[in-house]
């Protein structure tokens, strides 16, 4: 059994984020975003599954300059197998946008959700089984309010998708920019001095005394 951590991201300076860390962070954020409309369990599932395709050896090679590989279909297929179509749509589209649903006759060469699920069914995806060593996908129920009809389901899918995309972006951004943010931590006093230096050439303004007093008041606040 290979115990080498699978990575989700590598920064230019060599810092690494594991797939597991990224999945947990994304799932937590997505759950928080979806809580106000009752989609938290579905969002958590989407967050935990969205990048499990990165457990493939092909994606790990991609991080080091290898060819591009489809890593989103894997998570969508796992959600679909668990009878979670809304999460499957969100995961399938978290990079390229929500796909068309398509139909059962769609072949694996098509970019519809049904077509992409066929890639999993026909073993056309790069093997990604290592996810099962680290990740346990929760059993979730579809909210009752979504079961009323297609309009509700379509709207719920879009809300879920939005939560996942935002969570994925924010977790990735937090990791990728961690060092640059740490290197740019300035004290309030230093920032104040920088502001005064920046405005010294034109502030306080000449002319109307009322304008000058107003600007002085703003700085004092």
TrEMBL record:
Residues 12-170 form the HD Cas3-type domain. Keywords: Antiviral defense, Endonuclease, Hydrolase, Metal-binding, Nuclease. One of its GO terms (biological process) is defense response to virus. One of its GO terms (molecular function) is endonuclease activity. Pfam families: HD. Its EC number is 3.1.-.-. Coiled coil: none annotated. It comes from the Bacteria. This is CRISPR-associated endonuclease Cas3-HD. It comes from Pseudoflavonifractor capillosus ATCC 29799.
